[in-house]
Amino acid sequence: MSESVRSVLFVLGIMVASLAAAMLIPALIDLNAGELQSAGAFLWSAAGCGFLGLAIAMAVNTEKRDLTTRAAFLVTAGSWLVLAIIAALPMRFGGHGLTFIDALFEAISGLTTTGATVVTGLDTRPPGFLMWRAILQWIGGIGIIVTAMAIWPLLGVGGMQLFKLESSDNASEKVLPRAAEIAAAISLIYLSLTLICAMAYAFTGMSGFDAIAHAMTTLATGGYSTRDASLGAFTEGGSDVVAMIFMLMAALPFAAYLMMVRGRPAALWRDPQIRGFVTLVVAAIVAMAAFVVAADIYEPAAGIRTAAFNTISVITGTGYATADFGVWGAPATAAFFVLMFAGGCAGSTTCSVKIFRYQIALLAIRQHIISLAHPRAITPLHYGGRPVPPETVYSVLGFLFAFIAIFTLSSAVLGAIGLDTTTALSGAAATLANVGPGLGDIIGPAGTFQPLPDAAKWVMMANMLIGRLEVLTVLILFTPRFWQS
């Protein structure tokens, strides 16, 4: 067995064992609540998966554990799938009425922080089950930050090389040590913001349990709630205002927070993607609020608040809802569909295309138009005060093309399965962009994905994984050259 394979298996083994240890938290919560079947499923899953993970890690343990580029691709792609299968076990066997496909769908949606759910009756579900869903999203949130900041920039995935924190001559060959350094710093910031968010939720009147669960899913921009009414069940205390603040904070690059902690507070606003994101959010909120007020859907104060919350939730891909915006009319439905493809900043917990890729693509188009008008002119492309090499532009454009192609293909497949046009299009968009709820009567903010046929759920599960792994990370695994020695 090669050192590269041993390194991949070692990392996956440690991840499986760590996820198994996390199962003890919902197990204890359910034991305390007297939910013995659910608690037993968590305990047995923790024991079995913990043993499996540690056995694999010990069997392939080696002193040399540097991940090569190829191994890093395998770890980032394989970890989400393996962990999702492990995470689904206690949901399948805990007496929650979920088939294996539904349990796997819920686990993938949780870990990818999509927030699309097949579960109904959340108000009466065991507390450990609800906390497990929140934990999965919280883990997925920190996981995506670390890979987006430490792994993908070194691999040049989708233009992420723009966001290398530090250069390294051997970065393409040795990924793990740098990732560990970044993970430690970012995890502390992520944990701190989660605790602050939980305290803010508790201040608005949420119970301690609800505050912790919602803080986890807010910072992860995941959107799983403990109530069927989502955040709409807590708006009287002002929890929706807290959610808006922390959804926006989670949509900003955590690298900027790291720089602020290290004495560079101006780094937050100097980032062009942050300025672009803020501009988009403000413009979208103003337009949506003006529409709902002009259409007499809400009074001005309620309209601004409701429009702001749901607009931020969709742009950041969180998936919370305080209203069924599917009944606001065709203009609002079309606007929310477009906003699903926005996303936040690179190095955040958000999803979808992300702002910087649109900015790079527009700069490239502008450069091309100038070159057509002035063939001899030299117009270098700069972003954030730094020159953008051609390979980065190709990476961004390649990502955009692949994203659109997969969205088109998955929409067509969902339509062929039998879904109506609105459900097929919005379902493909919501899962590939990791937004959560779609549009329409079935999977809209007031519905769930449970009624969909199993074939559609498989397509959407694939979309969630592909979208969360920045598309190219998955597609490269299907190229023959990747597997050549």
Plain-language structure description:
This protein is mainly alpha-helical and 485 residues long. Among the domains are: 272-339; 355-483, no CATH class. Helices cover 66% and strands 1% of the residues. Strands 1-2 form a two-stranded antiparallel sheet. A hairpin with a 2-residue loop joins strand 1 (382-383) and strand 2. Helix 1 runs antiparallel to helix 3 (36-59), helix 6 packs parallel to helix 8 (208-219) and helix 16 packs antiparallel against helix 19. The longest helix is centred in the N-terminal third of the chain and has 29 residues, at 127-155. It is globular and about 75 Å long. It starts with a helix and ends with a helix. Residues 166-176 have low confidence and may be disordered.
Helix content: 55-70%
Total number of strands? 2
- Low-pLDDT runs of 5+ residues are 166-176
Q: What would you call the structural class?
A: mainly alpha
* Main sheet summary: 2 strands, antiparallel
List SSEs in N-to-C order.
Answer: HHHHHHHHHHHHHHHEEHHHHHH
CA-based gyration radius = 22 Å
Shape: globular
User: In what order do the strands lie side by side in the largest sheet?
Assistant: 1-2
Q: Please state roughly what percent of the residues sit in beta strands, choosing from under 5%, 5-15%, 15-25%, 25-35%, 35-45% or over 45%.
A: under 5%
Between the first and last Cα atoms, what is the distance in angstroms? 14 Å
The DSSP helix count reads 21
Q: Please state the average pLDDT score.
A: 88
Walk me through the topology.
Layout: H1 3-22, H2 24-33, H3 36-59, H4 69-93, H5 100-111, H6 127-155, H7 176-203, H8 208-219, H9 239-250, H10 254-261, H11 267-270, H12 272-294, H13 300-315, H14 330-339, H15 355-373, E1 382-383, E2 386-387, H16 390-417, H17 421-432, H18 440-443, H19 454-468, H20 472-475, H21 480-483
Antiparallel strand pairs: 1-2
Helix pairs in contact: 1-3, 1-4, 2-3, 2-6, 3-4, 4-5, 4-6, 5-6, 5-19, 6-7, 6-8, 7-8, 7-9, 7-10, 9-13, 12-13, 15-16, 16-17, 16-19, 17-19
